[in-house]
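Feature request, filed as a ticket because there's no other form

It would be nice if the structure record came with a short human-readable summary line next to the tokens. Right now we just get the raw output. Example of a typical job, pasted below so the devs can see what we mean:
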Amino acid sequence: MDTGTPLPPARKPILCYVTDHHALEPAPGTDALLAAIRRAADAGVDWIQIREKDLDARALAAVVRLALESSRHTAAKIFVNDRLDVAIAAGAAGVHLGEMSLPVETVVQWRRSAGRMEFEIGVSCHSIEGAKAAQRGGADYIFFGPVFPTPSKAAFGPPQGIERLREVCMAVQIPVLAIGGVNLENASSSMEASAAGIAAIRLFQEFPDAAARLRRM
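Raw output as currently delivered:
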């Protein structure tokens, strides 16, 4: 029997836990945050973005270093939101830039001059134009959203939806991760829209086994 052309291997999605110690239960704080980071890394998330905007540089660097130590036995990469200085000082795998962060071109230029080509640079985008600009600037990956309704991304407007996510994925050649309201029920639709993965806060904080369940799905 003719089996035809072999199917390509299934794509392994990138799963990114974005931290928020204020949303941790029952008691928010640094200890609870580090415990959540350890659980996520042990569960198999690929990336952990430490997004703790209210911590000063010293406290943030301490959290990043402890996160790196506690996840050393796993494959998880640690990224720092916004603070390039902390990411460099603490030895993180990369930095994730928002709309009010340093321009991606500036960080790419630093990376080149420092000979740190392994240092990864991500950018949050909320439009096709923003995604294309991030790619032109040298970003390694993009977060696009909010894809689904979520209170944490309300400031960025109404949800963009799956079709807009698909358009963004088709418009650039670098990985696009869906963010904003992603949960166990809708994660697969993001992958079907050609997203390289998903990023979420509560999904990984509230469901310690979410990474394993998503892999099975």
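Something like this underneath would help us a lot:
The CA atoms of residues 87 and 199 lie 19 Å apart.
The chain has nine helices and eight strands.
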